[in-house]
Fold these 3 entries.
Entry 1:
Amino acid sequence: MNIPRPEPGLVIRYSYLWLSEYQAGQEEGAKDRPCAVILALDDEDGETRVLVLPITHTSPADPSTAVEIPPQTKQRLGLDFERSWIVLSEANEFFWPGADLRPIPNADPSTIAYGFLPPRFFNHVRERFVALVKSRKANRVTRTE
C-alpha cells in the first residue's frame, strides 16, 4: 500500500471510531470514511502520532462544530457530489500508519490518500478546531492496535 507521510491537511481513508461508538464499548469504526489530518507529531521514540477529523454527509446540529467542504474541493479530491462537513467536535488519535487506514474505493487500491485540503481552507478548519479545543468542546478518541 502507498502510505504517504502524514501532513496536516492530507485527506485519508480511515475507519473512524465515533466518540459515541467508543463510549458504547466499540473498538472498531463501523464505516470507512474520508478524514482530514489536523495534526501530525513525531514523538521522542520516532513514532508519529496523528489526529484526524471525520468527514460526513450529516449536516451538523450545531453549525459551530463543523465546516462544510466547498464543492470544488470535494471534486478536486475525488469525493462524491453530496454536501459534506468536516466535524470539529471530535477526533481520532493514532500512531501512523496504524491498522485502520483503508484504500480509496474505485481508485488505485494501493493508496489511502485523496490529496490535500487547500491551505487557506485548512487554516480555517484548524483555527475553528483549536477554538473548540480551547473551549473544551472537542473530544478525542485515542486508538490502539
Entry 2:
Amino acid sequence: MNTMDQRVLEAIRHLNYDFREFTLSHFITYLSEQRQRPIILHEFPFCEAHALWAKTPEADYILYDQHTHRIHQIHNILHEVGHIVLNHAGRHLSDVLPPELLAHLQTIIREPICGQLRAARWMDTPEEQEAEAFGRLLQKEIVSANRMDRLIGRASSIDELARFAGSLGYHD
C-alpha cells in the first residue's frame, strides 16, 4: 500500500463509521452530523465534468452529473466526499467553470462558493488523486461489510443476471 492510500485509509478509519449500516443517505447524514455541517446532494446537467463539490459558509454541496449511470453518480459523490473529509482546499469556481454554467450553479446555490470540480483533465493533481483513492477505498470498506447492494441497488433488472451477480458475494 502506498503512502497516499495509507493516509486516505487512516482518514476513513478516523470517521468511526460502521459500514455494516451503510446506505448512501445514512453515510451522508452521519458525516453531516459529525461535522455539524450539512452536505447537500443535487443532480446537475454537466457536459464535460462529472461532479462538483461546492463549499459555502453554511453547507457543502455535491452536484453530480444527472446524465450518467447511477453507479457512476455514486462513485462521483464518494469522490467529492473525499475532498470534504480530506480537507482539500477549494478553487474559485469562476476560474474553472464557464460563465453560463456558473450562472446556472448560482440558481441552486445562492451563497458565495468555492470548491472542486471533477473532470478528467484535472485528475493529475494530488488532491484529485487522493479523492479518487478515497472513493476507491471507501467502496472496498462497503464491499467488505456486505453492503454493496446498498451502494448500487439491485445488480440488474434482469432476474437471471441479478441472481448471477448476487452469487458473487456483493449482496446480502
Entry 3:
Amino acid sequence: MRIAEGVFLHADASNCYVLRDGRQAVLIDIGSGDVLDHLGDYGVDHVTDVLMTHHHRDGAQGLARAAALGIRIHVPPSERDLFAAVDDHWQG
C-alpha cells in the first residue's frame, strides 16, 4: 500500500515499511522477510539497509535472510544484545 511518494507499507507478520529512492530502498522492520519477494511491486531492485525499531520475533524473523543478501542491518543500541544473542534471549 502506498502511504506517500516513495513510502509503502508491506503487511506481513508485522508491518514493514519500504522507503524508496530511485530503484533502491531502505526497510523499516522486516517481518518474515516476505517483502524481499515483492520488491518489484514497489519499484525496487535493491535494498541497502534494514532499520529495526525494536526486538520482537514478528518484526525481526527475516533478518537472517537480509544479512545473507548483504543488506546492512541497524538496531537500537539499547537492544543490540537482544539481536546478537536472540537464541539465548528466547531460551531464557
